[in-house]
Amino acid sequence: MNDVLLIALFAFLGATAAGLLGAVVLRLLRHRSLVVSFSVVAGVAVTAMLAGTLTVAWAMLLSSHDLYVITTVVAMAALVSLATAVLLGRWVAARSHELTLAARSFGDGGTFAAPAGQPTAELAELARELAATSARLDSSRERERALETSRRELVAWISHDLRTPLAGLRAMAEALEDGMAVDSGRYLRQIRTEVERMNVMVGDLFELSRIQAGSLTLSPARISLQDLVGDALAGADPLAREHGVRLVGDRIEEVPVEVDGKEMSRVLGNLLVNAIRRTPPDGAVAVAAHRSDGCVVLSVTDGCGGIPEEDLPRVFETGWRGSHARTPPAGAGLGLAIVRGIVEAHAGRAEVRNVRGGCRFSVTLPTA
């Protein structure tokens, strides 16, 4: 028993010396190719076995012939091990190079295509992660292109909507200055109307800029949904009377919500104004609210005749108005973008879908 322990001790000491030397070599060559690292590992394994064997053989005073046989056997094992390590290293290195080239292609704006047949589970997992990242980048690029399109449309609409009232203001100011205005009071009232229109437009731009910059500060408070909807309906009633549209709000459940009353009033106001302006005379705009899966769903249904299906995904984009404009003629396509921004700031979501005879805009908010 003592001999066995002694042999194990000598073998352990010899193998440990070889292992420590291999660790130093691996550290020095850690930035080199995988082929070199695999060769060092194989060499360390064989050297450790040889060192332990020679140490035990020296302690046991083996004959030179026996020592020669042992050394030859270990040397053959070393050659096979090194050849296997080099082949495996070159194989893994080649697959890694293919993966690098594939990653470079989608980094330059393309789409990542994983090379076929990854040699190791780690490289296969890396390829899957790169493919998922490529998909996310494609989605991000698509959103960026859509955002850039929205910005261009916004600039075009703003330029058009500002140029028209400014031209009218200049003409009326020149008429008043030259004394050519027959009814100066009417001119002054018209100037005030145009200024108010531009003030609303600038206010919408400022509100949207705060939302997009993430600087919209909310002051949430517990509010009754009936009170919130009732105030919004009262505010929109004069416009509805002017357009001959009926407001219907008799399907409001008594549900408390924790929201910023001012901002949510703006959301309802924008939705109601859009609905009223797009509903023909003698039509109706209905407001409803109910619980659904732990949330509150607030909806505004109009009689606009519907929005083309291909345009529905773009309704809430900044600056979009489309052929069936959902914003007032004096607006710049910002009303619904503001609605979505404020609702999302409340951890909710805004949606739209076509219903019979019109559209239904739904706002989903968490309950208080």
UniProtKB/TrEMBL annotation:
Q: Does the keyword Cell membrane apply?
A: yes
Report domain Histidine kinase positions. 157-368
Q: Which Pfam families match?
A: HATPase_c (PF02518), HisKA (PF00512)
**What CDD domains has UniProt attached to this entry?**
HATPase, HisKA
Give the bilayer topology. Multi-pass membrane protein
According to its UniProt record, the EC number is 2.7.13.3
Q: Which GO terms describe its molecular function?
A: phosphorelay sensor kinase activity
- Note the superkingdom of the native organism: Bacteria
Task: Extract the InterPro entries matched here.
Answer: 2C_sensor_his_kinase, HATPase_C_sf, HATPase_dom, His_kinase_dom, HisK_dim/P_dom, HisK_dim/P_sf, Sig_transdc_His_kin-like_C
One GO cellular-component annotation of the UniProt record comes to: plasma membrane
Instruction: State the reactions this protein catalyses.
Output: ATP + protein L-histidine = ADP + protein N-phospho-L-histidine
Which keywords belong to this entry? Cell membrane, Kinase, Membrane, Phosphoprotein, Transferase, Transmembrane, Transmembrane helix, Two-component regulatory system, Virulence
Q: Key word Membrane present in the record?
A: yes
**What residue intervals traverse the membrane?**
6-29, 36-61, 67-88
User: In its UniProt entry, what is this protein called?
Assistant: histidine kinase
